[in-house]
Amino acid sequence: MNLYEYSVTNTAGEEVSLNTYAGKVLLIVNTATGCGFTPQYQDLEEMYEQYHDRGLEILDIPCNQFAGQTPGTDEEIHQFCTLHYNTQFPQMKKSDVNGENALPLYAYLKNQKGFEGFGKGAKALAMRAMLKSIDKDYKNNPDIKWNFTKFVADRNGSIVARFEPTADMQEVKALVASLL
């Protein structure tokens, strides 16, 4: 299968085929409203405003699998994001990204780009320490490790990068800009 054969459900309960986004650069991110990485919504919105007219789409898929940091309903999550970050990019139904109830899209994404590490810096050290206490073998599986893991697909639907939440958002932006 390829990226465009998958679909997600929007907050209205409608199935959205990713084929809708064929020919666009797509950034797919699992988000949370109560996470230390939640301010990345601001960076995502700025990127969306800057590049949407050139072909960028961002798919926001809220997920409550990481320390219960997205406890609200889809409507409450949407209200939070628009009130605090003025988000305009499409927000999907809250969904799982790991486990037996994970969106099939996420199985595909993880198969295309596995976990490669958190990089350097204080946030990376904190993530490694936390995950080691939860799963000693976390480095060796492709599962999503935390909120705000981002996948970038080029205009042909190829998954070209996976960014962990600790990645510098300027690196994400630079890659997106290079694909537009």
UniProtKB/TrEMBL annotation:
This is Glutathione peroxidase. PROSITE patterns: GLUTATHIONE_PEROXID_1 (PS00460), GLUTATHIONE_PEROXID_3 (PS51355). GO terms for biological process: cellular response to oxidative stress. Pfam families: GSHPx. GO terms for molecular function: peroxidase activity. The active site is at residue 35. It comes from Caproicibacterium argilliputei. Keywords: Oxidoreductase, Peroxidase. Transmembrane segments: none annotated. Belongs to the glutathione peroxidase family.
